[in-house]
Write a structure and sequence with these properties.
There is one protein chain. The protein has 12 helices and no strands. It has helices at 2-14, 16-53, 74-83, 95-111, 130-151, 155-186, 191-196, 211-224, 236-239, 249-274, 296-317, 323-351. The longest helix is centred in the first third of the chain and has 38 residues, at 16-53.
Amino acid sequence: MDAILNLWNSFSQDWPTLATLILILLKIVVIMLPLMVLVAYYTYAERKIIGYMQVRIGPNRVGFFGRHAFGLGQPLADAFKLMFKEIVIPTKANRVLFVIAPMLSLGPALAAWAVFPFNEGMALADINAGLLYLLAMTSVGVYGVIIAGWASNSKYALLGAMRSAAQIVSYEIAMGFALVGVLVAAGSLNLSDIVRAQSGSLLHWYWLPLLPLFLIYFISGVAETNRAPFDVAEGESEIVAGFHVDYSGMTFAAFFLGEYANMILVSALTALMFMGGWLSPFQGTPLEPFFAWVPGFVWLVAKTFFFMYLFLWFRATFPRYRYDQIMRLGWKVFIPITIVWILVVGLAVVYQLPWWFD
């Protein structure tokens, strides 16, 4: 190990720019590889969990040991199938935009992780405007959906794209306002600073003083990702899969990966912004010494998995909303509540009213 470190230090001194680039690429690989594996097995978990909720078995055959493998090879089989399926481009489609759209959907979902802090000091880029960067990245994904619907030259796809555009814009405002409340409470745009501002036990985290914003942010995140019960953009019973009706092979897989990567991102951000991120729920309590051995990263992952589970629970439980109900909820309920609560939080911070903003 010492020989490797000495070799790396020598290389860094001789080629500093190249060494920095290699280090950044290694960090990207370390983040992206586990994320892609998690996305793949999130699809497996979805089918298994919803199967149990609906008294079904779910995937239980694909694997090295047949039915004794519990279907753990299913995500790999799905990926293998999609890689070798033909990409069919409709005759009258805009070929360039048709291919670019899936990349625009997946790219921002992956790029957003560049500023995400996984633990104290563990981030690819710990920038001061991290929250602003996240808002920008999560807003770009809608362009992939709109371009896909238009480029297909299909009525169903275009209708799904228009629905999605209106829905995402509506709930993007509510999500943005919810994060403004977090910004006001923490006094910083840096994601690590936001977590540090929540130092303390479970009762010190922002889910309690910002409870309406917490609920609105997560529900809006479900709507942003076009997940049930807000999945009217790809409502199979109405518009035959919506904006990606003409996609197949790896172009469809890119939309699929983008949706699940966004679900994981929303879950992780909810844990970071409102649930203390990597902080222990027993911090500052008599139980803290008993859990001091648990790394902060483990707490963050546990909180993220909880919110990821809620996505699946919602899909198995709630019927799809009518489109007018979705628009009414976004514009007439969520946005007014967020505006009022931002005002409340601002007054609490200025006059230091509650103890959790001291």
